[in-house]
Design brief:
The protein contains 13 helices and ten strands. About 40% of the residues lie in helices and about 10% in strands. The chain is elongated, with a radius of gyration of 31 Å. The protein is α+β, with helices and mostly antiparallel strands. The longest helix has 28 residues. Helix 10 packs across helix 12. It folds into three domains: about 100 residues, no CATH class; about 90 residues, no CATH class; about 140 residues, Tetracycline Repressor, domain 2, CATH 1.10.357.40. Strand 2 and strand 3 form a beta hairpin. The C terminus is likely disordered.
């Protein structure tokens, strides 16, 4: 089964996360099967045409109302040798129920059967005794049978090392494989030990390469909504000061603009008269509309990010009170939403929204913080006149 997500439902204003997969369903015993969505939620609720739970799902599978594979697909012949087979065991209702249980555990951020199997492997490594081997066998068998070949993440050996280790010395592995020996058991322990060393080495390498990663979770994402104030901006607009249409006079490339939107769309225009009309527009929204109608510079797609970055630097370096608002957002991710800006600039909950405005605001914020750490005599990085002259 291929699980997809995220999805969720709301219960008493609480979000209950879920995941879903396809399953075969029919209404009556004499009707045909069709493909439907089965949704599993963190609280154990399951929906597939109706609300149920694990016990209900088990009954629906047992009575044939649901099927984990297309019943019209011919059954594959048995593998001639289990040891030599490269395929997992067939998907069964029993195995699917185990996987659904696993999915509920994962949605609750609890260990899955595969993770518990790895915990049992590490315990056996530390204490190789019959009691810990029995625990390992139970953990391995708790993994859905058709997923066991993936539990070690080794596509060459698959789960063979575990099958060897769980076979008693003197018995044939899988009934038709090699006879297990003490040397083979030791080879498996060496295999796991070598894997541990590889994991530790990779963790040490990542610790060096990712040394500048944040040490803990940052602030929750900050959403900058697009808002209309028909009677003018309030006395305390708060975070709306960060939006491009907020009236903050800036000087850039020798010209004065009433807002970032005025500057951006004026600089996009190829014709000088269009630039003047956009610059003198009564509001940022009007500047946006005029700029969208004007013919743009031929190089605009290549320079617009740099122009916007410099306009933001000008805005926040020329208005310290606005810079203070931006810096106060800390390390929060900034989601710049709205309807007027294109998906290139704003954040949309799909692949089209690139949120470049949010990212540039975060960059400007970082530069402002860095400025505060510079000594007064050191050069400043933001609001560079040289940069402005190159981009104007």
């Amino acid at each position: 089964m291929t699980w997809r997500g995220p999805t969720y439902r709301m219960v008493d204003r609480e979000r209950i996360d879920g995941a879903w997969c396809h399953i075969w369903r029919r209404y009556r015993a004499d009707s045909e099967y069709y493909l439907d969505d089965l949704i599993v939620f963190a609280d154990g609720a399951i929906t597939c045409g109706e609300r149920t739970d694990l016990a209900g799902l088990e009954k629906m599978l047992a009575t044939g109302r649901l099927a984990v594979t297309n019943p019209e697909t011919p059954t594959l012949p048995d593998e001639p040798s289990k040891w030599a087979s490269r395929h997992g065991e067939p998907l069964t209702p029993e195995g699917f129920l185990l996987e659904v249980t696993d999915r509920i555990e994962a949605l609750n951020e609890r260990p899955t059967a595969g993770q518990r199997c790895w915990d049992a492997i590490r315990r056996f490594q530390q204490e190789p005794a019959e009691s810990t081997r029995a625990l390992l066998r139970a953990a391995y068998l708790a993994v859905p049978s058709y997923l066991r070949i993936y539990v070690l993440g080794d596509m060459d050996l698959q789960d063979r090392p575990l099958r060897i280790l769980l076979t008693n010395i003197g018995e044939a592995v899988d009934g038709d494989g090699p006879v297990a020996t003490a040397e083979m058991h030791q080879d498996v322990l060496d295999y796991f030990s070598h894997g541990n060393q590889g994991v530790q080495s990779e963790q040490e390498r990542r610790a060096i390469q990712h040394a500048d990663d944040p040490s803990g979770p940052g602030r929750p994402a900050l959403i900058l909504h697009e808002t209309v104030y028909p009677r003018g901006w309030p006395e305390q607009p708060g975070l709306f000061m960060l939006r491009n249409d907020f009236p903050a006079q800036i000087v850039f490339a020798g010209e004065s603009y009433a807002s970032v939107l005025h500057g951006y769309w004026a600089l996009s225009a190829a014709d000088g008269s269009d630039r003047s009309r956009i610059r003198d527009a009564a509001s940022g929204r009007e500047a946006h509309d005029l700029g969208g109608q004007a013919t743009h510079r031929s190089d605009w797609p290549n320079v617009r990010l740099a122009v916007m970055a410099e306009l933001l630097r000008a805005k926040f370096t020329q208005h310290p009170e606005l810079a203070q608002v931006l810096v106060s957002t800390g390390d929060a991710r900034i989601s710049y939403t709205g309807l007027s800006d294109s998906p290139f600039w704003r954040d949309i909950p799909d692949a089209r929204g690139r949120n470049w405005m949010g990212r540039l605001l975060e960059l400007t914020r970082s530069e402002l913080v860095a400025q505060q750490l510079l000594r007064p005599e050191e050069p400043r990085c933001c609001g560079s006149k040289a940069a402005a002259s190159r981009l104007g």
